[in-house]
Design goal:
The structure holds 2 protein chains of 2 kinds. By secondary structure, chain A is of the alpha/beta class. Helix content of chain A is 38%, strand content 25%. Classes of the chains: A alpha/beta, B mainly alpha.
């Protein structure tokens, strides 16, 4: 089969001559006309460098050192910069990660969509406009005839991302490069955008390269896949082959992480079931009619911006509740309300049958100990001036009056529990990787010996493989320590792998069943063993 | 002790120069007066504005007193006063800033507005009024300098501290049930080190200059004692004769302020730590 796009021996280096760092090492692949190739890998795998090389571009400080890049009958490495510039936007188009950063807020969407077509004189303005409208319709954007007259701030992030794809496609390019176009979107929007991308690509037979770190996303759009790690190709082939029979160890771990999301983990379900039979269903935590938000309290006693409306929640001892919702649904507020950081304006909280004061001030040391919060971003939730040993030992002194050797022994046990090397104990947080920092956060929370662990998007800032490892750790800790867990996430897959129950938040209320795939139509969308 | 040594060795050359010069002046301020060859008010030379000689290493001043002896004592006044005042200003500013960062909003508001009122008073005028009202004495100079420079130190520390107080690790400490004192001292204070040290260096230099300025006007340390500023002033007429009596104290002030800045800038944490 003749390849439409062919890349051979591509090597990209960074740094000055003599002390270069190789970012991409001898990568080669081909794409037949009309197919979509996915470049997948974690951050630092060189996927974006390769994508930019397909536009004949290298980032500042980087350089295409060797190899050939052929698109159709053009050899990109032989072209003059001026000729390359003419190519971009017409024959090769690029869709960037953040659409909101790529649009000029002062011009209408339509002007920006057809701008490059007008500049390059591809077709008359009217012709381009009708093409754009057709694309808007194909992308299932609302009101395709008139959406072009709006300004970028008048459409949502997901819509803007689709407009940006329309901008790339309007000149009918030979090749479109998508650089993580859905990463910045939340899950429900991501699915809609992906679906419209796929439909448009299929219908028009566009050749495309799709860069992503997320196998689940790539599996929906691509025909072929190239797996990258640290600038080297680990595996390539058709999507079905790589997903079905991964050959390489790294690919296998990616696929396993993907599966772990896709299929429910068995262990937590059984443990929840056994807990349910072993003990009477006593609630550890109970929320009744909780309303909370931000800003100064108004005359009715409610804060100006209400984030949670009249929420009820019962968490049995030993249960793991997943709370999912889009950004802005109030899910992080829920964790902060339970932890007391955002006092509930109305409603009551009960911990183990005893009332829990809404704010921090009324709570006893014991109540503080029993509820522990793990933050989303491990980079900012660890004090940069403390060694991680000191961070983990603080709750030991605070709650258990452990000091000296006893505290040190307990700290070593906690490090083992969260699988942190003991050799790290004297280091500072900035010297640790993202996954290690999140483990330190977990160890600090576990040091309190809590009854309830609140996890707020703990895997959101981690790579797929690292996130899977942290999820696995959480699930096993829950089994070993008989913890109750509230796991807050926008990622249904991640939630499913640790949780036995599910709650969907939508605009600060328990969400509708329609928004939760695979859940029963209970008013407060709860499913046992989902 | 070991970590101190390691920290010193990691200094860039400019930091080394600063450290050596600062150490020299500290030693002079601490022990210098004991080795003064003559009394501070003793007239020992028949001539005024003697050039450098074996008998008078820094010449003699406008009354024929030994300049070296006067410099040794003047250094103690300048450095001792400025250091104490800077410590007082930065210390009280920092303490109030930590209080403002962890206390409820109303207390923060009261402290901040009070400091704003103080900061709006011009420093030289304030010092002049204080001296005019109460007469010049060492404790008064100390207090005046501290009050003048505390609001600036407070502003810097509060801005940094409130920024830190909004971060997740402070939220995490609050959710853990830590007391306000523990949050201020354990969680916030260590992260203020860099900016506060840099600011302390600046305050020290400002205070040296303020005191020198006051002494130059004759309102600082009173005769027969003198700090470096008054030494410059009283020997000003020696300028026409290029007497060392006027250049020595002037150069000393310059070298102290520059060296302190070199050292502070080179300290780890002054810029890159955060």
């Amino acid at each position: 089969m003749a390849m439409f796009v062919e890349v051979q021996g591509l090597t990209i280096t960074a740094g000055d001559a003599g002390q270069e760092v190789t970012l991409v090492d001898d990568v080669g692949f081909g794409i037949p006309r009309g197919e979509v190739l996915a470049l997948i890998g974690e951050s630092g795998s060189g996927k974006t460098s390769i994508a930019l090389a397909l536009l004949g571009h290298a980032r500042r400080g980087c350089r295409i050192a060797a190899g050939s890049i052929r698109v159709g009958d053009l050899d990109l490495r032989r072209l003059e910069p001026r000729a390359l510039q003419r190519l971009r936007g017409t024959r090769i188009a690029y869709v960037a990660q953040s659409a909101s950063a790529s649009f000029n807020p002062a011009h209408t969407l339509m002007d920006q969509v057809i701008e490059s077509g007008v500049i390059h004189g591809i077709a008359p303005r009217a012709e381009l406009q009708s093409r754009a409208v057709a694309l808007f319709r194909a992308m299932s954007l609302p009101d395709p005839e008139h959406i072009g007259a709006r300004y970028p701030h008048q459409v949502s992030g997901g819509q803007l991302q689709r407009v940006m794809a329309a901008m790339a496609l309007v000149a009918d390019p030979d090749l479109v490069v998508f650089d993580e176009p859905t990463t910045a979107l939340d899950v429900t929007t991501q699915i809609e955008v992906l679906r419209s991308f796929r439909d448009v690509l299929r219908a028009r037979g566009t050749t495309a390269v799709y860069v992503s770190h997320d196998l689940a996303v790539v599996a929906q759009v691509a025909d072929r896949v190239v797996v990258l790690q640290r600038g080297r190709m680990r595996e390539s082939g058709s999507m079905a082959d790589v997903l079905g029979q991964p050959q390489d160890a790294y690919t296998k771990s990616l696929v396993a992480a993907h599966r772990g999301h896709a299929s429910p983990a068995t262990a937590p379900t059984t443990s929840a079931a056994s807990v349910a039979t072993a003990t009477p269903p006593a609630s550890l935590l109970q929320l009744r009619g909780v309303t909370a938000g931000y800003g100064r309290a108004g005359r009715d006693g409610l804060p100006r911006q209400v984030a949670l409306h009249d929420l009820d929640l019962d968490l049995p001892r030993g249960a793991a509740l997943g709370v999912i919702g889009e950004s802005g649904s109030g899910k992080s507020t829920l964790a902060r309300v339970i932890a007391g950081l955002v006092p509930a304006a109305r409603g009551a909280l009960e911990l183990d049958g005893a009332p829990l004061p809404p704010g921090l001030s009324g709570r006893s040391r014991e109540q503080f100990r029993r509820v522990q919060l793990v933050f989303q971003d491990a980079d900012t939730s660890l004090n940069p001036a403390h060694t991680i040993e000191r961070i983990v030992m603080r709750p030991l002194a605070l709650y258990h009056d452990l000091r000296g050797d006893a505290a040190r022994a307990e700290q070593r046990r906690l490090f083992d529990l969260v699988q942190l090397p003991q050799s790290l104990s004297g280091r500072y947080p900035r010297e640790l990787s993202g996954g290690q920092k999140q483990r330190v956060s977990l160890a600090r929370a576990l040091a309190a010996k809590p009854d309830l662990l609140l996890c707020d998007e703990v895997t959101a800032s981690l790579d797929t493989v690292v996130a899977a490892a942290v999820l696995e750790l959480l699930a096993s800790l829950r089994r070993e320590l008989d913890l109750s867990l509230i796991f807050i996430s926008h990622d249904l897959g991640a939630t499913r792998s640790v949780c036995s129950e599910l709650m969907v938040l939508y605009a600060g209320r328990c969400g509708s069943a329609a928004r939760a795939p695979r859940s029963t139509a209970h008013p407060c969308t709860r499913t046992r063993g989902c | 002790m070991n970590s101190w040594w390691a920290g010193l060795r990691a200094l860039p050359p400019s930091g080394w120069i600063g450290a050596v010069v600062v150490a020299f002046w500290l030693v002079v301020a601490l022990f210098g007066p004991w080795f003064a060859p003559h009394g501070v008010g003793e007239m020992v030379s028949q001539e005024v504005f003697d050039p450098i000689s074996r008998q008078f290493p820094l010449g003699s001043d406008y009354l024929g007193r030994d300049m070296l002896s006067r410099m040794l004592l003047g250094t103690r006044y300048t450095i001792g006063l400025a250091l104490a005042a800077a410590l007082l200003a930065s210390g009280s500013g920092l303490a109030l800033a930590l209080l403002a960062a962890v206390a409820p909003g109303r207390i923060d508001e009261i402290i901040s507005r009070g400091m704003d009122a103080l900061i709006s008073v011009p420093s030289k005028i304030f010092a002049l009024v204080m001296v005019a009202a109460f007469g010049s004495s060492v404790p008064l100079l100390l207090l005046t300098a501290a009050v003048t420079y505390a609001p600036g130190a407070f502003r810097i520390a509060r801005a940094t501290a409130t920024q830190i107080a909004a971060l997740d690790y402070i939220q995490s400490a609050r959710a853990r049930g830590e007391s306000r004192t523990a949050i201020a001292l354990r969680e916030i204070l260590p992260n203020l080190r860099g900016p506060i040290l840099a600011d302390f260096g600046l305050r020290f230099v400002f205070i040296v200059l303020l005191l020198a300025g006051l002494s130059f006007l004759g309102l600082g340390v009173q005769p027969p004692n003198a700090d470096l500023g008054s030494l410059v002033r009283e020997n000003l007429s020696g300028l026409t004769e290029a007497a060392p009596a006027v250049f020595a104290p002037a150069l000393s002030i310059a070298s102290i302020t520059i060296a302190v800045n070199l050292l502070i800038d080179a300290l780890p944490g002054a810029g890159e730590r955060r």
